[in-house]
Amino acid sequence: MKLERYKNNPILKPDDFKDSDIGAVFNCGVTATKTGEIVMLFRIAPSGYTKDPSGNGYTNYVSSIGSAVSKDGYSFSVDEKAVITPREEWDRYGCEDPRITRFADKDKETFLVTYTALSSPAFSGKGDRVALATTEDFKNFNRHGVIIPGLNDKDAVFFPERINGRIALIHRIPPDIQIVYFDDMEEVVKPDGNFWSQYSESIEDHTILKREYAWEAKKIGAGPPPVKTKEGWLLVYHGVDKDHVYRTGVALLDLEDPVKVIARSPLPILEPEEDYEKYGDVNNVVFAEGAIVLDDTLFVYYGAADKVCALATVKVDDILDFLKGFR
Questions:
Q1: What pTM does this model have?
Q2: DSSP one-letter string for 143-206
Q3: Residues 170-216: pLDDT tens digits?
Q4: Closest Cα partner for 102 from 170, 31, 164, 155?
Q5: Which one of 41, 120, 168, 304 has the fewest CB atoms closer than 10 angstroms to its CB?
Q6: Residues 98/289, Cβ–Cβ less than 8 Å
Q7: Domain harbouring 101, CATH code
């Protein structure tokens, strides 16, 4: 099974910014608001970055997080001004890859925005930390800073509701995917001094998914927030192979105990095939970070080749039926 690409992809590209000199816009998180408006947050890199002489990424490359809105999930209007920009020591080299969870808790709804904060230059592989911002209107953001201190970590996303009374967060200490639970948001933002050291000592106990297949041999990481379905939590994730090709996979997790994997596809449901996915600032990348259900269809938003944003869809029942073959 493969996701169906939107015929007018890419849905967001640097040329869509009329008043800003943008080199790349990609890796987009998406959510729906109470009013039905669809909000996208994405990673933007201003023009002017250049290839690193070592061949490893780019220099003069500092990302911020921008926003766009849509009424139908297909066409988005961009805000020229970034909503989250580097300003602290822990994010001075970039704010990257936002994911949005519409979190319902005790009759209150808040949008939890997790993103990667860089305290070292992009592409260095050092100083990657999970940061959190919260908002209720996508105009005012409360920045809580790094929430997983001292650990090289990415691809963090909250479940949209408590599980057995606790707040659950999926994240990735390389190379596999883990889960962590908190009693409340205070513990998320200001954990006990020994919380993460004790957690890291028993990392295997918290691992949900391990690499199993050739297309994900190098590392895996969570994509959008898990989507609640009648069959379980639908987790879209990415896998990276030995040649650094990024593909998209899918798994189904137990509703009451997400450590239990009900089903998992051995093959990717999306992989680089189109030119906008194969050629860009980083070739051969499809990187899903946003997912919403509109009517009976799952809309999956992804970054393509670290250059543009794109969309692919699938009927929810179709993907659940597909996964039944791998229980």
A1: 0.97
A2: EEEESSTTS--EEEEE-SS-BTTBEEEEEE-TTSEEEEEESSHHHHHS--TTHHHHHHHTGGGG
A3: 999 999 999 999 999 999 999 988 999 999 999 999 999 999 999 99
A4: 31
A5: 120
A6: yes
A7: 2.115.10.20
